[in-house]
Amino acid sequence: MHHLSDKAIKDYKLVRKAVDNGDQKAYAELMSRYKDSIYYMLLKMVNNRDDAEDLTIEAFGKAFRNIRQYTPDYAFSTWLFKIATNNCIDFIRKKRKLMLSIDRGFENEEGQDVSLEVRSDGPGPDDVMMKKQKVMMMKDVVDKLKPRYRRLVELRYYQELSYEEIAVELNLPLGTVKAQLFRAREFLYQIMKNSEYVIH
User: What is the pLDDT of residues 96-118, one digit of tens each?
Assistant: First the structure.
């Protein structure tokens, strides 16, 4: 512990309180100490406030779920920032390769490329048909979501509404929209990952 700064030692004490006693105030204080710095780091990475807020919550969620794995070999903040960074990199990769893109495949959890793509030698009528088929497949995947999640996905990704606009449209609190959309993305990813339509 001698290698840790005073700040890191205080963090470690909070971690012990959280782990040993289930102290919710300790969790809250850990979050309070790093929420802003994590958020601004993620904002620089994704350049989108909504996504940065989601990713901040996700980072703390992952860190707290795995907090028993943390050891004071290094500062808690180092561990937390690494989780946040890795989660964000995963998000960027998924967004680029998965986020409801009908033209591309995506990378699964094992890092393998999974694709809806069917090989073609060049543009032509077949491509148009294939694109239509992919759109139908994607709609079919989205249709597997529960209605409230499906509606959120449609508003967010098909109509490209902001979180605030969706909250107004559905007359829901902004926090509820964000939480449910996060859940919807997770469901969607799981459906796509296991989809019968995916061609490996």
Answer: 765 555 444 444 445 555 554 44
- Using an 8 Å Cβ cutoff, are 132 and 126 in contact? no
Structure tokens, 46: 């994704």
CA neighbours closer than 13 Å in the CB half-sphere of residue 14:
21
pLDDT per residue as tens digits for the range 52-80:
988 998 899 889 989 999 998 889 999 99
**Residue 106 DSSP code:** E
For residue 158, the SS3 value is helix
Q: Do 145 and 187 form a contact (C-beta atoms < 8 A)?
A: yes
Question: Phi first, then psi: what are they for 160, rounded to 5°?
Answer: 55, 40
β-bridge mates for residue 113, sequence order: 107
Could you write out the DSSP letters of every residue in 112-127? -EEB-----SS-SHHH
Between CA 166 and CA 169 the distance in angstroms is 5
Name the phi and psi angles at 168, rounded to 5.
-70, -45
List, in sequence order, every residue forming a beta bridge with 107; answer none if it has no partner. Answer: 113
Angle at 26 between CA 24 and CA 29, to 5 degrees: 110
Write down the H helix ranges in the chain: 6-21, 24-46, 49-65, 76-97, 125-143, 147-153, 163-170, 174-193
CB neighbourhood size of 97 (10 A): 16
C-beta separation of 157 from 151 below 8 A: no
92 and 85 in contact (C-beta within 8 Å)? no
